[in-house]
Amino acid sequence: MMQFNALLFKELKEAFRDKRALAAALMLALMAPVMIFAISKMAIKEAVEKPDIFINVTGAEYAPKLIEAMAKENILLLSDVPQDKQTLWQERDVRLTIPESFAEDMVAGKQIKMTLSADYSDNALRSPLRRIKNTINGYSRNIGYRRMMVRGIDVKLMQPINLIEFDEAVPSSNAMFISMLLGIYLLMAAFMSGLSVAIDSSAGERERNVLEVILCQPVKTLNIVLAKLSCASLIAVIGVVLTLVLTSVAVSFIDLTTIGATFTLDGYTIAVLVALLLPICLFASALQLFFAFQAKSFKEAQSTVSMIIILPALIPAALTFIQDKPKWLEWAPISGQYLLMEDLFKAVPINMEMLFFTGVVTLVMTVVLVQTMAKKLTSEKTVLALS
Description:
By secondary structure, this protein is mostly helical. The chain folds into two domains: about 5-45 and about 170-385, no CATH class; about 50-160. About 65% of the residues lie in helices and about 5% in strands. It has 17 helices and four strands. A four-stranded mixed beta sheet has the order 2-1-3-4. It comes from Thalassotalea agarivorans. Keywords: Membrane, Transmembrane, Transmembrane helix. It is found in: Membrane. Pfam families: ABC2_membrane_3 (PF12698).
């Protein structure tokens, strides 16, 4: 135990001595709340407000009522665009073509073909195009209902089934975009915060011949690995806790009630998150140490280990495309923790069996990595980077 304490003290002293590297390691924890705050404000503004849309309408004089209905929804003619937004909307180039026979076809009850042209792959146009289509479809539907009423036909005949929907989601579920971002940022904080410490204490020490000197001492390789793992994991835990605390503060400045949502991090939520993320911090640091020890140089270790940090972003993104998720994903590291975080943020009761097994599986894989590293450090090939 004395050996481990001495080695851990040495690792902690070196990790906290380089303030610049430590600040860079915790940068994600500091930036994540700022990004969540900015994205949330933009999403709420998009959902609540109806900013002006300017479109180039050909044949506007043939359908004045339609133009008036669009104006009520802040969909305006390009000729009315302010000077400071003129270049922007000219580049977006949204065009609506109204045929010359609009009024005659309307009176005759014929179907009128109008053309809406734009770059549908442009993300910036996704919301404006949706608003334009909804407005035109609503205007068309109202005219259809009026025609039926004039002919003495009950408009309910057009809707034989009235589907009544009850949204049973709790208000916190409406803040899913914040929950998803926070879940991914927490996993990334667990992987990124201890990254520099893990590389420096393994490949860095080997390049500076410090590792060789330590191994010449009468110490167990298992204690060396555990000391390095404990130090890197501690930095990762600090990053996760900072992300949680700062995000909680940042979200308190966002008025989610405007979209009927709430988001709070109470004591129970924080306790479950810590129980979920503590094994991930250990697993992430063990994985980074393992690959850093396999690299032949510090530079190679940086390249190899940096690829691991995409896992916390890649796996949750892949899970959104899987409709019927296999059972083993609930127990696997990262995917299991992310699925449980989804339930937690939706205020769904946590499956304690799933929480236990995903933690155990993550810790077992960490132990396997630690034992493998301890065994490899007894070989000259690993210490001198000969293989």
